[in-house]
Amino acid sequence: MSEVDGLTPSGDERITYRGPIKRLLVSPEIGALIGAVVVWAFFWGNGDKFGTAGSTANFLDVAAPLGIMAVTVALLMIGGEFDLSAGVMTGASGVTIALMAKYFTDGGISLWVCIPAAFLLAGCVGWWNGFLVNRTGLPSFIVTLGSFFVIKGANLVFSKRINSLVNVADVDKAHGYPFFKALLGGENSFGDMKYRDVTFIVGGLLFGVLMMLGFMEQALVRRMKRSNGDLAVAL
């Protein structure tokens, strides 16, 4: 019998079980997490007010518009896709609401109609991007980059044509403004801490729930694969 015949086959190292600590250390997001913790700890240790409830509320207030958009974009990137038109679509939604509230019909349209219309427009743009990616096979990076330039140009054209300026004034006089200001920009209190980022907080919580469900699903799939592998070896 040759030497080769006497060798014992070893398992495939690609399907070797890795513990939770090892999986955490090789995960791509651990670097960003460590960086965020280091930056937070540095400023917290060198500043008197950084990390307090008041300062945290201040930068969350500024970060809320970006955070709301980042939640959905992060979910898309986790799925392996890009949407470069998300940022300019945020501006286009605001332009749509402002122009409809001031110039459509006599005296403008109520915000109760303008805001759902802006959501509908954003949904249609997202559907169109997905349709083009699926039908043409082009990368989402290229498709959404084209949408970015189209929407950016449309923002400028409609703003200048209808309003003669790129900014629309007196939106606060539209019907329904007090309600939406209190809902989206009103100040709330939780004990001694005041905040007004309700949408950001709710979106972040939903994002966290989705992430936890995703991790649980991955853990279940890995466990089933290991069980099937053990069964195959036993047979």
Count every beta strand, where a strand is a DSSP E run of 2 or more residues.
2
Q: Kindly state the mean pLDDT as a whole number?
A: 78
Q: What share of residues are in beta strands?
A: under 5%
Contiguous runs where pLDDT drops below 50 for at least 5 residues: none
Major β-sheet annotation: 2 strands, antiparallel
Would you kindly provide a written description of the structure presented here, covering whatever features stand out?
The chain is mostly helical. Among the domains are: 78-186, no CATH class; 189-227. 70% of the residues lie in helices and 3% in strands. The chain contains 8 helices and 2 strands, in the order H-H-H-H-H-H-H-E-E-H. The protein has helices spanning 20-26, 30-46, 53-78, 86-103, 111-136, 140-163, 177-185, 198-234; strands spanning 188-190, 193-195. A two-stranded antiparallel ribbon has the order 1-2. Strand 1 (188-190) and strand 2 (193-195) form a beta hairpin. Helix 5 runs antiparallel to helix 6. The model has no long low-confidence stretch (mean pLDDT 78).
Name some characteristics of this structure.
about 240 residues; mainly alpha
